[in-house]
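User: Fold this; tokens only.

Assistant: Input:
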Amino acid sequence: MEHFDKLFLPLESCGVWVVSFRENVEAGLQPDLVTFSILINGLCIEGKLAQASRLFDDMVRGGCQSNLVIYSTMVNGLCKVGDTTRAIRLLKTMEERGCAPDIVTESTIIESLCKDKNVTEALKLFFETKGEGIPPDVVTYNSLIHAGCNYGQWEEVTRLLIEMVVNNCKLDVVTWSILIDACCKEGRISEAQDIVERMIKQGFEPNIVTFNSLMDAYCLQGKMNKAREVFNSVTNKGCAPSVVSYNILNNGYCKAKRIDEAVELFHEMAQNGLIPNIVSYNSLIGGMSRVGRLVAAQQLFKEMRANGLVPNRVTYIALLDGLCKHGHIHEALGIFHVMQKSEVEPDIVHYNILTRGLCQVGQLKVARKLFSALPVKGFILAFALIICDQRTL
């Protein structure tokens, strides 16, 4: 049987593994649990859950009793593709067949339920797990605390934190970061800073995720100097700013119409070896468009395409809106035609921007023509045209 298992190790693709597996079974070699485990794990890693499920069923039908590792692998694979319902069914099957789940299996499903916004079921499974004598670990608590913070269930969050302390389950950097991020999203920056200080006293150094949360909170409140202070402190704390860090600050500067600082930061990112992504370009294009720096915005649009980045609907919204608001309808129509030839399908927002812009400069015939090309006529567009027509009477 050892030779059987080794047959699969040199093969790079699980699809090839399965073919080789079938051929060896037909040749009379009988696979064992290790063989099935290798194949099922490989298929799950490649995201081939349908094949993994069929192989799992073949294993059971063939009289090969599954174990905790294989069940956990299948549960993890199902949760990763968002099929939490099947993962729960498999958990019940596992228990019925006398294979007791561990906290890793239970936590995987709890986390998946939380991602599905089904916090009630997640808590139910959490209590059942404790009732079965399986102590939750920090990963389990983090999933529930994160969900509780996202949905404003602060009493439940407090209860879970107290329970962690009582059960001697220590908070980790993820727990602290979740709490800091939750305070930041609610604009409670002072509380977030207090948590950071407590976190450091407990021996945990803030990571880049923590700093990003603080920067984002300051940016949302328009406190750009404070956001920059946090950004500058990142390197002093032994962290390196990520593309996300730059994007947060860049977006904040653009919304505050501090475009020169945004441009400087954009170039600084590239100088530090980080490659601007679509979010980086969208923020700067939007910022430039809002303040009327349309030539620079269009140049940046060309640059991102030359660098292999594909503009998305947000890119076109930012550019079209800026051009139309500043009366550059001809250029806006040119960008719109570029969009039509791309893979980005214009939607009601793009049509609405253009229609409003055309109406504002009195090009009603072009606006009507554009409106007639819209597959589903939007009420907002129709209303805009009626208003424009009335104003010309």
